Amino acid sequence: MRASPAWILIALPLLWAAPSAPAQQPEAVQGQPAAESSPAAERETAEPAAPPAEGRTLAEWYAMGGWVMHVLVGMSVLSLIVILERFWSLRRGATLPRDFLGQYRDHAHRGELKQVVELCSQSDHAAARVLRSGLVHFDQGLADMVDAASVAGEQESGGLRRNLPLLAALGNMATMLGLLGTVLGMIESFDLIAKTGTGDARVVAGGIFQALVTTAAGLMVGLVAIGAHSLLRRKAEGLEVELVEKSSRMLEDLWLRREASKLPQGEASEAAAG
Q1: Is residue 250 part of a domain?
Q2: Is residue 81 part of a domain?
Q3: Torsion of CA 237, 241, 242, 246, to 10 degrees
Q4: Number of domains the chain is built from
Q5: Domain that holds residue 241
Q6: Low-confidence spans in the chain with pLDDT less than 50
Q7: Which of 88, 171, 200, 213 has the fewest CB atoms within 10 Å around its CB?
Q8: In this predicted structure, what is the pLDDT of residue 228?
Q9: What pLDDT sits at residue 222?
Q10: Best CA proximity match to 133, nearest among 152, 116, 115
């Protein structure tokens, strides 16, 4: 019994420490991750998460390009006007109308030279003008008629290709103007580097980004204009060849009908001159 007080004195500290050990263990475990995660928490506090990127509107893209965009818009509008005008003018029906060709063929098959000349005189399109130039030389022979029609066809080619050089120039100028805008933007960006240094790369990158907008806009305008010019030029060349060939065949057909019907030579000259 004498030992019981000693055992009690030894057991009391153990009993006191037993419940406190589990409480201290979580604190140590919880403290360790907290100590490890504290730098990340500090970084998150110091550097807030960037907002998600949003798409820019067309007006914002336009404003980023500066004054060069104003000129490019004007050139794109002018290019569009020329493209639409040429597509309308280079229609086959405007150069070689089907109704006109049918009426000419009917008169030619009947050998009606006077009616053919009147039909060409009353019509105002490329086919009528070329045929009228050939019919003036009807009494001089088929070769002279065809030569005159060929010369008239070459003259009509100028009208078929009207405004195409302007379209090509607009395409080239738009591309060069876009590059000019980029060079001006690069100059501005390097000027910022000289003034502020390279500490903030976002300032320089923003200037270069804005400068490249003009290059993209200039290339888009130039590609459309140059592509349309190539297409319209081929269309005009095809109409030129078809105009001369068809006019020559029509004059030859009329000449053969005239020989078959033995039309007087004087009638042809009077009809063509009138």
Answers
A1: yes
A2: yes
A3: 160
A4: 1
A5: 61-273
A6: 1-53, 263, 268-269, 271-274
A7: 88
A8: 95
A9: 93
A10: 152
What are the pLDDT digits (tens) for 9-32? Answer: 444 444 444 444 444 444 444 444
**108, 250 contact by CB (below 8 A):** yes
| Per-residue model confidence (pLDDT) at position 184 | 82
Q: Is residue 48 part of a domain?
A: no
Asked, for residue 216, whether it belongs to a domain, the answer is yes
**pTM, entire model:** 0.67
Count of positions (residues) in the chain: 274
